[in-house]
């Protein structure tokens, strides 16, 4: 399964909007297949952007998101603005590469800095 950075961002936005719970959060991501969402929740947990719980069984993969970590909040703040998000993705694609998370995060952070400093 391919990593989908738009789904990553959607998961983070949904988690931020959800009330805090000690258990998992049911996300409102109906345009994606449940297996795809589960896979991306696992990836986000591995990357340290969210806390999640693994409910997988022999019946299939089932990861549930719990809450954002500090790093998750940081990435979400940098990617929140839709035009900045699209610009960062476009700049990376123009250079002929796939979207590497660390490069995307650095680029978004630089774009935020430019917006704040007006440069």
Give a topology summary.
Elements lengths: L4 H13 L16 H13 L3 E5 L8 E6 L1 H10 L2 H13 L6 H17 L2
Antiparallel strand pairs: 1-2
Highlighted features:
2 domains; mainly alpha; 5 helices; about 120 residues; about 55% helix; globular
Overview of this structure, please?
This protein has 119 residues and is mainly alpha-helical. It has 2 domains: 5-68, no CATH class; 81-117, no CATH class. It has 5 helices and 2 strands. It has helices at residues 5-17, 34-46, 70-79, 82-94, 101-117; strands at 50-54, 63-68. Helix 1 packs across helix 3 (70-79). The radius of gyration is 15 Å and the shape is globular.
Shape: globular
N-to-C SSE string, H for helix and E for strand: HHEEHHH
| Largest β sheet strand count, sense and barrel closure | 2 strands, antiparallel
Strand content: 5-15%
Structural class: mainly alpha
Mean pLDDT: 90
Per DSSP, the total helix count is 5
Number of strands: 2
The radius of gyration is: 15 Å
Count the domains.
2
Largest sheet strand order: 1-2
Amount of helix: 55-70%
Terminal residue distance? 39 Å
Low-confidence stretches: none
Short summary:
55% of the residues lie in helices and 9% in strands.
